[in-house]
Amino acid sequence: MIIVLKPECTDDQIQHVLDRIHELGFTPHISRGVSRTIIGVIGDESKLQAQPLKAIEGVEQVVPIMKAFKLASREFHHEDSIIDIKGIKIGGGHLAMIAGPCAIEGEERLMRIAGLVREAGANILRGGAFKPRTSPYSFQGMGEEGLQILRRVGDHYGMPIVTEVMDPRQVDLVARYTDMFQIGARNMQNFDLLKEVGKTRIPVLLKRGMSATVKDLLMSAEYVLAQGNLKVILCERGVRSFEDSTRNMMDISAVPNCKLQSHLPIIVDPSHATGRPDLIPAMALAGVAAGADGVHIEVHDCPEEALSDGPQALLPKAYAELMVQIRGLAELMHKTIDACQEVAV
């Protein structure tokens, strides 16, 4: 249920509405737009009568929402949400250019790759310290040492960082270092993990599961939002199909589909979607053209030496060439790529 407040509603009146919702045993979530303030009410709508709420001073309208994902819906927040990560905005016409290696392999190498992608125009640095692998014998990541390296390199270049968290028990540790959590495809429906990151106020990059529908993705986002963390960025990274010439099938339609149903930003990850460097540029551009709020690309300076997902990584030179094209497309679409803060390098 959505409670739309009058434009002249006072802070005292807003607080009274919030208190009344709590008294009735429901959970309120407030959203302040440019011209309107609305309150989302979470709970069983069949047990909440709209008429008494309409009588509260300052309330203009009470709108039932029957979608399962209430806080993620456009009804709750009509305008595009903009997530700010240390001055880098995602959504509302701002594009996030996330780049870096699949896994953190050492400080010297990460420092080199980060410098190259930053120079090319990337504004958020990625790198995995905990790696979910199909085989238990594959490289599993450097753990906390990797997080420390990622933090130092990000600070050195003035780049916000994003890294994956795989388990609720890791949330406190990863939160000490990262600027944005990544929830991988395999964990999209790890509801305990979603609740834990939802209790923080650190932005969450939520990747679509390999067999998940768009509704499944938005319902997973709802788990994070329901805990009070409204800073969620969706990510289309390909879904399973019968096609075997690519790693997955990149669902371009998911971008406008999500945007029609939800206010949350959505980015694309053509690296995992295709698994092929020769297809990454075309799919990255297609994602931006479809309305994506950013592109997530794996970059490595020597893919043959990579400890994880080397075959799908772009070389820094290829990434720089792609960024020239993305900038041109962004300009045509009147979108902005925020620059990282200036630092002495």
User: Would you tell me the overall average pLDDT?
Assistant: 92
Q: What is the CATH C-level name of the largest domain?
A: Alpha Beta
Report the portion of residues in β strands: 15-25%
| Residue windows where pLDDT falls under 50 for at least 5 positions | none
Helices and strands, in order, run as EHEEHEEEEHEHEHEHEHEHEHHEH
Q: Write down the Rg.
A: 21 Å
Using the alpha-carbon principal axes, give the shape. Answer: elongated
Give the helix tally. 11
What's the count of strands? 14
Spatial sequence of strands, sheet with the most strands: 13-12-11-10-9-8-7-14
Structure write-up:
By secondary structure, the chain is α/β, with parallel strands linked by helices. It has 2 domains: 2-63, Phospho-2-dehydro-3-deoxyheptonate aldolase, domain 1 (Alpha-Beta Plaits), CATH 3.30.70; 83-332, TIM Barrel, CATH 3.20.20. It is 33% helix and 17% strand. The chain has 11 helices and 14 strands. It has helices spanning 11-23, 50-54, 107-120, 144-157, 171-175, 191-199, 214-226, 254-261, 270-274, 280-289, 316-332; strands at residues 2-5, 27-32, 37-42, 59-63, 83-85, 88-90, 96-100, 124-126, 161-164, 180-183, 204-207, 232-236, 266-268, 294-298. It has an 8-stranded parallel β-sheet. β12 (232-236), α8 (254-261) and β13 (266-268) form a beta-alpha-beta unit. α10 runs parallel beside α11 (316-332). It is elongated and about 65 Å long. It starts with a strand and ends in a 13-residue tail after the last helix.
